[in-house]
Amino acid sequence: MENIYKSFQKEVISNFYKKSKSNKLILPKDNNPLFCFKDKVILVINYIINGNPISINVQNKLNLPNLDLPKKKYINLYHIGEKKNNNVAYGLLDDTFIYPGIDLGGLTNYKQKIGTIPSFLDKSFLINDKITKKTSNDIYKTWKLYSNKKKFYGNIKNELYKALNSIKNNCIIQFIKVPIEYRVIYTSKDIFNKIGHYYIRQYNDSYAKEIKPNNKLYCAITENNCTPDINKNNILNEYKI
What we know:
- This protein has helices at 2-16, 54-60, 133-147, 156-165, 188-195, 232-238, and strands at residues 34-38, 41-49, 52-53, 73-79, 84-93, 96-103, 106-113, 125-127, 171-177, 181-187, 199-201, 208-210, 218-221, 226-230, 239-240.
- It is of the alpha+beta class.
- It has 2 domains: 2-38 and 181-240, no CATH class; 41-177, no CATH class.
- α3 (133-147) packs across α4.
- It is globular and about 55 Å long.
- The chain starts with a helix and ends with a strand.
């Protein structure tokens, strides 16, 4: 299934990627894509292992090879966009450590090469077991501040509280500013009508699955990649023209 999914991505890019400019940030419609830039800040879950944030072990792993780093696996966290739990990658894969993260559409990842310093923003929050509403609201306010937003579309404050409470283990919530990236966004129906199939990633052993298009699902395309599972929250909170 991995090869089928990657072939699907290449097919989408070759048929749909182009550069243009939209006049304002609105949801794509059939035969009317959105030309825009992804401009987002994500929350990164920096788990604490043996008293230290795992980022310290990642940073020092080359000089201290016996430092403990969990191998890549999938963990289950609350997905803001789907409003239910889903899987997200976590752990060491080759020379890169994959952190689980939360974005305004659901779940995401941040990757750090071993031996490097992570590009975390200054503000962080220590989470011990069950999170309080106050701490969750403080994280929400900081997220808005770093995102340069007066407000987020959707019921993000309450959904964030659910996501943070799904973590269960001691950690530090960090913030990462993702590099700005040009994208063109199409409806899933546009993609399906052109190439006859549509796949989304699955964060488990099946890797991906084929689905029917629907009006809540969009595909964001760059010159080298496509993300076929973004939603309204992503677009209205994490993109600009």
